[in-house]
Each structure stands twice: as C-alpha cells, then as structure tokens.
Description:
alpha/beta
Amino acid sequence: MKPAESVVFVVDDDASVREALSSLIRSIGLRVETFNSAHEFLRYRRPNAAACLVLDVRLPGLSGLDLQHELANAGERIPIIFITGHGDIPMTVRAMKAGAAEFLPKPFREQDLLDAIRTAIERDRAAREQFAELAQIRDRYETLTAREREVIALIVKGRLNKQVAAELGISEITVKVHRRHIMEKMKVRSLADLVRMAEKTPLHDTRGAGTYT
Length: 213
C-alpha cells in the first residue's frame, strides 16, 4: 500500500497567519491542514503519514504548550515547531525540554521555517519506520511459545546450547530444536541477526512505546 503523503499541520488563531503559512508551505509541494484552535486540531482524525505540527504558543483556550502536553500524555509522537510573537526564554526552555523540534520567534525568516519543517518531517518519517520495524519484531515474538521465549532470552545473552539446556533442565537436542523454531518464527538467518534484533527492542518486553495515528 502506498504511504500517505507528508502533511504539515498549522494551528494558529489568526486567519491571516494561517493563510500565509499555508501558502508558503504549499509552495514547496507539501500538503497543509490548518486549524484555528488546539481543540479543533485534537478533534481532527489525522492520517497515518509523516508529519509535523507548526504551532502558535499563545492560543485562546488550550495553549500551544498545553496541546504539546496533551499529545505527549496521549502517547502521540509528532515533531512540533513552535512559533510565537511573545516568546521568552523560560517558555522556550519549557517547550524544548518537552521535545519541541524548533522554536521560532516572530518575525522569522521563511527559509528558517521551511528548513525546520523539512527536518521535522524527515525525523518523523525515520521514527515511523523504526516504530513499524519494532512492531513487526514484537508481533513475531508473540508467536513464540513460553519455552521458546525462555530459550531466546538466554541465547541472545551468549549462552551456549549446553548452558541453556543446563539452566532450563532440558536436553541439548531440545534446545537446538527450539533454536531452529525461534529462527524461523523471528525470520532471521543467523544468531548475529537475532542478537541485533534483541538490541533494537527487549525481547522480554513486547509493549509499545507511543503511538502514531
């Protein structure tokens, strides 16, 4: 299935600003969706695509920083580029510590914003690819039996077959059978591949860390 096109979300309560930013971003061939409030953005069903959020700090009702907090609490990962005409150092520090991709005080150079958007979208695309890869690993791990999980936990630590057999109280031949099944289910060709897979995500913990929508 062809992935959805990248999209830039703009949240600003000033219609003229939304229009100007939308025109600028579309000029480099990117899709843009605009919103006049944080609540409107939260109600929008966002596509599963690489994206970033251009967000005004000071909004009526739920502020930009509040929206950042809401998204973080919901486990939603999207790079945020804050823009503000009233930025101060404490606000900038708070936003960046909470994971903001960039903080641009008005007036800012158009090129600075476009560069920040490109960087943020690439960051989100890479994160989505990594998330999908880890989800695939976890799905494969879920197909292992309880005994196979015990075996894999030991072999990725470098235990030899006879050591695994001794620890689990089973025969070495049985360990070899389990190893073969593990390699097939995890879709790896070598122990080195299995170890690299284990380094990417703890194979004893199949819980996700955040979501993408």
